[in-house]
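Sample entry (168 residues):
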Amino acid sequence: MYGSYTTIEDTPALRFERRLSHPVDRVWRAITETEELQHWFPSKVVVDELLPGAEMTFEFEDMPLDAPSSMGGRVTDVDPPRLFAFYWGEDHLRFDLGPIDGDHGCDLRLTVALGARDKAARDAAGWHVCLDRLETRLGRQSAGGEWREYYDEYRRRGVPAGAPIPGE
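Predicted structure, serialized as tokens:
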């Protein structure tokens, strides 16, 4: 369940894989529709159309005063229902979906190319929590662990750390 830290073309990156017991089409809706994203994604997502080049805005609620309340992004790739990729600020997120168990399940792979190496453990814990919430949204019983627990484990596993943690 834990993600892994790697480099892709000299860029620090995180990779996560989840095997979900829902069809690819259902998972596609959960990762692309605003009404679904609000249940698991870390911000409100505003995008007019899912087309390459489309501008995105990520609006944050309940952020500490010293943190920005919004951030920009841009759609880079869309191939329904298999690929959705976009910039989340300086990071590039790529969701790849594939069928498993016939068409009854979905293999979800999230790759996050990071803008900075020292935030890998912090962001790994955050995306881990988000993916747990996605699974809960799709019907899994348990909500998973807490951010601090995951952060400590990613650091223990040697994932680079050192970036500031909002609110601390």
